[in-house]
Amino acid sequence: MNNAKICNSFDESVKDIKSNSSVMIGGFGGSGGQPTRLMLALSKRKIKGLTIIGNVAGISETTGYGWPKNIKPVDQGVFFRKGIADKIICSFPVPASQNPKSPIENFWNDNKDSVEIIPQGTLIEKIRCAGAGIPAFYTPTGVGTIVEKNKETKLINNKKYILEYALSADFALIRASVADENGNLQFKGTSRAFNPAMATAAKTTIVEVDKIVKVGCLDPNNVHTLGIHVNRIVKRRKGDIYP
Amino acid sequence: MIYNSDPAERLNKNQIAKYATKFLKSNSIINLGIGIPSLCAQYINDPTILLHAENGVYGFNKFANDKKVDPNYMDAGGNFLKMNKNMVFFDSVESFNLIRGGHINTTILGAFQVSKNGDIANWMIPKRGIGSIGGAMDLCANTKNVIVTMEHTTKFNEPKIVERCDFPLTAVNCIDKIVTDVGVFELGNNSIILKECAPGWDVLSIQNITGVKVKYDKKVVIMDIDNV
């Protein structure tokens, strides 16, 4: 049995994440695809200055977005309530409603330059490029808006594009349905989202899974993320209350 | 909703959503935004129209009932989905390849303001200072056919169809059609053309609550809200 990548606990799997690290949080937003147990383990660490990178970042706690009604939601606001993060890069930090204010809106109130809001398609492409060895790319998204400000642009076939740069991180915390012992992953439904790209774009990728199977048990035609990109695997306990 | 100077009731949100589905074509892939657009899903009866959501699904058409939810099956608005045989799943890279690559035929979304040259502002209220862009900029900038569904005015009866948006823009020169609670409008050649009026409304009463000079055809028709 090859279990070099398997960690016995969530706490152990995130214990080397140091202050001032950049950390990608997988999923889309909401409970499906979110590495909730890894996030809770990280939020207990006595560290400071994390940069958090994620998509829909902090709207579930106040709105219930993407969570079943009977479970108290967890979202990326946890890092800001606990004061261990001081920057966030995301596409959707706040809900439409201002009341009650989310932890990220409260953080933004005092740290206006520390919340970077990026169009979702640009955010995922920045992450994809980091994992794919592409340093930058041109996109039509954001032309004529605040997103274009202070950025290089180029006319290609008479259409204007913005130059955007790749985005990598020290760690990616991601969520999958099944892993084999080599770290090959399968996701379920819409829980794939940002997880596969983030796995390729971080120095260390840690994955929270429901199930670990022996090598050879996953259909090799249907592996969504290659084990090459996965450094650590942690299995949830049976009957975990979180989706 | 009705204001003092209104000649008739304005349509409610469900009526706006239902009417907007009239403009969707068979065999097309559609992305619905949050708010009034997400209400459209329940009125699409053509099985060849497939819905796409940014989080990595297309082919869905119904939402799950509250008791039978699986968070692994959700749309981008956070609604849990009912499974059907058309549904396929993919990651965010592929999802935005579909959007930027022009493979989504139509997107329907809400707006704070639309200007007569087709600019849209729908992600941030200036006095709040923070907002969420999500997939809106990608969808507006890259989808061939962009339809806005919205109430015609703010709750203070101020126009939302304006000469120039003073809210931060989502994208420029991209809106093709607006369906509001008082009419249907087409955009083109830097002008807003009134095509249909809600029952009881006419060109003048709509002009009175619109921030730009509205053009119109000789025969402006009444929206047939009961037969969509």
Can you give a write-up of this model?
The complex is a heterodimer of chains A (243) and B (228). With 243 residues, chain A is an alpha/beta fold. Chain A has seven helices and twelve strands. Chain A has helices spanning 10-13, 36-43, 60-63, 77-81, 103-110, 120-132, 195-201, and strands spanning 6-7, 22-25, 50-53, 85-90, 115-117, 136-139, 153-156, 159-165, 169-180, 185-186, 202-213, 232-235. In chain A, strands 1, 2, 3, 4, 5, 9, 10, 11 and 12 form a nine-stranded mixed sheet that branches. A three-stranded antiparallel sheet of chain A has the order 6-8-7. The radius of gyration of chain B is 17 Å and the shape is globular. In chain B, strand 12, helix 5 (203-207) and strand 13 (214-222) form a beta-alpha-beta unit. With 228 residues, chain B is an alpha/beta fold. A ten-stranded mixed sheet of chain B has the order 4-3-2-1-5-8-10-11-12-13. The interface between A and B is large, with 58 and 47 residues.
Which radius of gyration of chain A do the C-alpha atoms yield? 18 Å
Beta strand % of chain B: 15-25%
CATH architectural type of chain B: 3-Layer(aba) Sandwich
Task: Indicate the low-confidence ranges of chain B by residue numbers.
Answer: none
Tally of strands of chain B: 13
Offer a quick outline of the entry.
Chain A has 243 residues and is α/β, with parallel strands linked by helices. In chain A, 20% of the residues lie in helices and 26% in strands.
Task: Spell out the blueprint of helices and strands.
The complex is a heterodimer of chains A (243) and B (228).
Chain A: E1 6-7, H1 10-13, E2 22-25, H2 36-43, E3 50-53, H3 60-63, H4 77-81, E4 85-90, H5 103-110, E5 115-117, H6 120-132, E6 136-139, E7 153-156, E8 159-165, E9 169-180, E10 185-186, H7 195-201, E11 202-213, E12 232-235
Parallel strand pairs in A: 1-12, 2-3, 2-9, 3-4, 4-5, 9-11, 11-12
Antiparallel strand pairs in A: 6-8, 7-8, 9-10
Helix pairs in contact in A: 6-7
Chain B: H1 13-20, E1 29-32, H2 36-39, E2 50-53, E3 57-60, E4 88-89, H3 92-100, E5 106-109, E6 113-115, E7 120-121, H4 136-142, E8 145-149, E9 161-162, E10 177-179, E11 183-188, E12 191-197, H5 203-207, E13 214-222
Parallel strand pairs in B: 1-2, 1-5, 5-8, 6-9, 8-10, 12-13
Antiparallel strand pairs in B: 2-3, 3-4, 6-7, 10-11, 11-12
